[in-house]
Write a structure and sequence with these properties.
Layout lengths: L7 E10 L4 E7 L7 E2 L2 E3 L6 H13 L4 E6 L4 E4 L15 E11 L15 E8 L3 H4 L5 H17 L2
Length: 159
């Protein structure tokens, strides 16, 4: 089988844990079936990964008050399913290569507001970390399984 020649889009993802070590997930506006995801997005030209993470988090959730617990020292990648290649990201990419950050939410829940300039989520909730792989779309499941391993390490240390 021939590999798709399109490149991967460089992106970031952010895990937001609350004081109970539950994770923020949002239901996407463009895929309102019962699938949820954590904030993520592309890195702009000239933007650092850290700046991109903070910008994406603010753009999607209005969250500002976080403490970074860990930046993963490796990248996570996924390929889009065939039916989405050529449609998402103006057809320029076959998937994403993402740097993930694990953060602790330090603000009050009233800070969370999905009604942003370009809303991506229509609903949000706090989710038990164990349930992460079960709520994401199938083609990103392997990423959430790897993140779950990292989250277990971090949350077990803080108990």
């Amino acid at each position: 089988m021939q590999k798709n020649p399109l490149p991967l889009r460089i992106g970031v993802g952010v895990v937001v844990l609350n004081s109970d070590n539950m994770v923020f997930v949002g239901k996407r506006k463009d895929n309102p079936v019962d699938k949820w995801q954590m904030p993520q997005g592309g890195v702009d030209d000239g933007e650092t990964l850290f700046a991109a993470m903070k910008r994406e988090l603010l753009e999607e959730t209005s969250i500002k008050n976080i403490k970074v617990l860990k930046e993963l020292d490796y990248w996570l990648e996924y390929d889009l399913p065939k039916n989405l290649i050529g449609i998402i990201w103006k057809g320029k990419f076959r998937g994403q290569k993402q740097k993930w950050f694990i953060t602790k939410f330090l603000g009050d829940e009233s800070e969370i507001d999905l009604n942003t300039q370009k809303p991506e989520f229509i609903e949000w909730k706090w989710l038990n970390i164990e349930d992460l792989p079960d709520v994401i779309v199938d083609f990103k499941k392997h990423i959430y399984e790897k993140l779950l391993i990292e989250l277990k390490r971090i949350t077990e240390q803080s108990l």
